[in-house]
Amino acid sequence: MSIRRPESGPEKAVADWWRTDIIDMKPGEISYYGYPIESLIGNVSFTQMIWLMTQGELPSPEKAKLLDAALMSAVDHGPQAPSIAIARMASTCGVGLNNAMASAVNVLGDVHGGAGEQAVTFYQMVNEIAASKNSSIEEAVIEGLAKQRELHGKFIPGFGHRFHPVDPRAPRLMELIAEAKADGIVEGRFHSIALQVEKQLLNEKGKAIPMNIDGATAVIYGELGIPAELARGLFCLSRSVGILAHAWEQTQQGGRNKGPIPRDLLWTYDGHPKRDMKNKD
């Protein structure tokens, strides 16, 4: 059977049904955005490949290092995180690793997993305020915080953590961004905005509301020009590593039909007291 790429006629409409700039493939040839796969293998890291596949160009090694730091820092947060717990429970139901991973990734939404995207959007709003009004970052942050609360409520995405008084991941990520800023790799605009938000929250609350992992990775995504919506997808890739690790570990440990609480404990029942069908009237 010959495989061809039609250039005209009705078959061209069929070939155009799925149009893509990402991959070109024919018998014996595979290329991504024009790069033959054999030239990428051994020369491009997985993180650089993620950038190429989502952005269309290869990043500089320095920018790839920042993206790599963002991806590796968010891989796991233990079985108390819903996605990880779901992966482990699914594994005890006899499903395969892919099923357990899919079940877990499907709960990464606005509440669990969406704060990074929300933080990027918030930083971008502050940046746009500063640019459009030619105001200082401090003024833009004050206005941006007010607008964020008006639109979305009191919680500011990327700041504070229900478990960690200080999220140990955020300061190290901010150090790396500061180094990249000093070396001229990134502009540092989002870095400055995030630090000013942290400062303003301290002024408002009288106590520190430290940046968390989502706030810090959002700085990296903002500095690298990654759209907010794509930031959530990248977080899903990152957390998939932890999901896979926990699903695999649970598979090795065994266990059947493990629920969210040990089986010798019962959930709280707030329903109607026991009643008799004879007295239903």
From TrEMBL:
Q: Which UniProt keywords apply?
A: Acyltransferase, Transferase
For biological process, the GO terms are: carbohydrate metabolic process; tricarboxylic acid cycle
List the Pfam families.
Answer: Citrate_synt (PF00285)
Q: GO molecular function terms here? A: citrate synthase activity
What InterPro entries has UniProt attached to this entry?
Citrate_synth-like_lrg_a-sub (IPR016142), Citrate_synth-like_sm_a-sub (IPR016143), Citrate_synthase (IPR002020), Citrate_synthase_sf (IPR036969)
Say which domain of life the source belongs to: Bacteria
- Quote the pathway field: Carbohydrate metabolism; tricarboxylic acid cycle; isocitrate from oxaloacetate: step 1/2
Using the UniProt record, name the top-level EC class of this enzyme in a single word: transferase
Q: Basic and acidic residues compositional bias: what residue ranges?
A: 271-281
The record's Gene Ontology cellular component field reads:
cytosol
Q: Where is this region: Disordered?
A: 252-281
The keyword Cytoplasm is annotated on this UniProt entry? no
EC nos: 2.3.3.16
UniProt keyword Nuclease present: no
Q: Which family does it belong to?
A: Belongs to the citrate synthase family.
The name under which this protein is listed is citrate synthase (unknown stereospecificity)
Organism (species): Grimontia celer
